[in-house]
Every structure is written in C-alpha cells, then in structure tokens.
Amino acid sequence: MSQGVPLATVEKLARYWAHDHDWRKCEARINAFPNFITEVDGLDIHFIHARSTHENALPIIITHGWPYSVAALLEIIEPLTNPTAHGGTAADAFHVVIPSIPGYGYSGKPASTGWGPDRIARAWAVLMNRLGYTRYVAQGGDWGAIITDLMAVQAPPGLIGMHTNMAAVVPPEIDRLLWAGGPLPSDLSADVKLACDMLAAAYKNVHYALYMASRPQTLYAIADSPVSLAAWMIDFPCSLDMIARSIDGLPESLTRDVVLDNCTLYWLTNTGVSSSRLYRENTFNYFTPKGVTIPVAVSVFPEELYLPPRSWAEKAYPKLVHFNTVARGGHCAAWERPEIFTDELRAGFRSLRG
Fold it and tell me: Is 142 a catalytic residue?
C-alpha cells in the first residue's frame, strides 16, 4: 500500500458497492433522528438535533472531519441522549447537535472563499444560540478538532468546555523541526519522542491534504466517478489498512457497509470537491496550540496520527480537566469505537455539569 490503495481492494469495494450495499438502510438511520436546515451567514447549514428526555441533559455540538460525515457519528447519538439504555446514568445525558460542515453532506456549498475553520466555529456558536442553548460544550476530531479549538478560543457566551480526540498541543518549535526534517533535541522523554516519531511519519504521508490545500478545484475525477471518490476517501494514512481488511470481509471496527455509507453520502451530495476546499481555506496549523483557555478534556486513541504527551496537553490547555489514553481506536474514534468514545465524553465532561 506504499503507492496508494491496491487495485484488488478497489475492485472488491466496487463490486460490493454495486451488488450488496444498501444505502436505504443508512438513509433510514439518518432519518431516524430530527434533521434540520438553517441559514447562517448566508449559507444553508444542515444539522441533526437529538434532544434527550432526561432532565438537566448537557447540550453538546459535535463536529466531524474529512473524509467523514454525519453518517460516521450516528452510533453515538442514542448512547449520549439515552444513557440509561446504554450503560450510563441519567446524569450522563446530552442533547446532541451534529452539523454538517459547509461543503459537506447536506450543508450548502460556499460559492465564495472565506469559509475556513474560524468562520465555521463562529457559525456553530450562532447555531447553538439559535437553538436556545445558553450553556453547552463542544467536541471534535480531525477538522472538527480544529473547529472546536477555534470555537473555544473565540469563547462565545455559553461554551463552558470542549473535548478533543485530536489534541492541538505540539510545541511550535518542535512542529517546525518535524516539517523541516531537522534534528530534534536529544533530551526528549520517551512519550515525547514517540509523539515526534509518529508526527514525522504522518507528515510524510499527507500528500492528499497538501494537494487539496493547493488545488482542490482540479479534483474533478472524484465528482465524475464514484470509484475514484471512494479510493480517494479511503486512502487515509492511519486507517487504510483497517478499511482494506474490512473490505476483505474480515472482522474490524468498521464494516464494508459503514465505509460505503460514508462514501455514498459524499457521492449523492456531490461533495467530494466542495469538501476538499476546506484544506485550501484553512490558515491554521493542525497540531500546534491555538490559545484555548476554557476547560478541556483530551482522549488519546492509540491509532491516531500521533499520541499527545500529557506534558504537552497541560501546557496547551491550562484548564485540562480530563486526559486519558484508551485501549483501542483511531483517527475517527466516534466511528470506529463508539462505545469507548461515548464513555470518554461522559467522563470528560462530568466535572462541568452544573
């Protein structure tokens, strides 16, 4: 897989997609929750809004990333809104808001530039205010982590804390050395050295992101061919091996069907190219601190792009209220390990419930 997605994997995926995958099942799962469209800053924003029946549920806005969508977050909704039916207590309940990022899924496609992560963060605050939430928390991974970090920096009234499963805590001086391939300090602790090694490897395998950040509009093939779109989407450095095994029918945390549910949503909404533009719009470093000062919970999943050391997290997030390394899971933790992810949200925000 050193040169991309193997042909055999794509052929198996295409055959299964054509003959066995049932999109209507995913469509029904999405429609089982209340879906809405609202206009924010001149753009249609789609969101799922699932309210808990439990009194004093904590409102939470959860943001997906690329190449994911609201379809990748469906399994966490019921455990969060109805915890007593899923191993929790009424005190663990959340009202759940899951928007589609502009250019993704059922949200509108920006017709002009300027919809970067910071503008999306401001739009999310407008959305939560519009829904009447005056006290809430935010969560994100991948792009969702960056959007959530920036939302925390903007500190809209009502946002009392955040959770991330892709912590932005890398010291800028270390990040510069990793991008440049320069020598690192010789006195790094073991956990810091591991984080640096993982990041160095990740930076050598983000060609997809570099291309989308420079020429997203040229990716016409992923709007013209569903197979091209799927191959582009599954060629993610820390999950391709796992997805390839699932396409082979082997037991994995993701099945062929859920992988193709996500691909189908992109295909039907024609958002392969429009979702790529966020890489071009972004002006923020992915992994360095943004200046968050509100309470933060961090969950470390072992198959993430890198494992942030607690020492870095404590410096980047001075109000760190939760830091935990879990046993399993990777970059899209809510998709891959919804039970573990749900437990982490419950634990991470427990101290912030009033």
Answer: yes
Q: Which residues contact 75 (CB under 8 A, 6 or more apart)?
A: 334, 335, 338
Instruction: With beta carbons less than 8 A apart as the criterion, state whether 294 and 319 touch.
Output: yes
Domains of the chain: 7-169+205-352 (3.40.50.1820)
Q: Rounded CA gap, 68 and 254, in Å?
A: 13
Q: Please indicate whether residue 279 is annotated as part of the active site.
A: yes
List, in sequence order, every residue forming a beta bridge with 319; answer none if it has no partner. none
What stretch of H or E contains 269? helix 256-269
Q: Are 269 and 105 in contact (CB under 8 A)?
A: yes
pLDDT tens profile 58-103: 999 999 999 999 999 999 999 999 999 999 999 999 999 999 999 9
Q: Which of 21, 64, 106, 142 is catalytic?
A: 142
Tell me if residue 163 is catalytic.
no
* Token duo for residue 30: 């999405």
CB 237 within 8 A of CB 305: yes
Catalytic annotation, pick one of 136, 266, 279, 306: 279
The contacts of residue 173 (CB under 8 Å, 6+ apart) are none
List residues bridging with 297 in a β-sheet: 163, 322
Active-site option among 46, 54, 64, 331: 331
The per-residue DSSP string of 275-290 comes to: HHHHHHH--S-SSS--
Question: Helix count (H) and strand count (E) of the chain?
Answer: 16, 8
Distance CA 204, CA 179 (A): 9
CA 233 from chain centre, in angstroms, equals 14
- Crossing angle of helices 256-269 and 23-31, rounded to 10°: 80
CB-based burial, 136-147: b 16+ in 10 Å, e otherwise? bbbbbbbbbbbb
Write the pLDDT tens digit of every residue in 28-60: 999 999 999 999 999 999 999 999 999 999 999
Q: Is 212 helix (H, G, I), strand (E, B) or coil?
A: helix
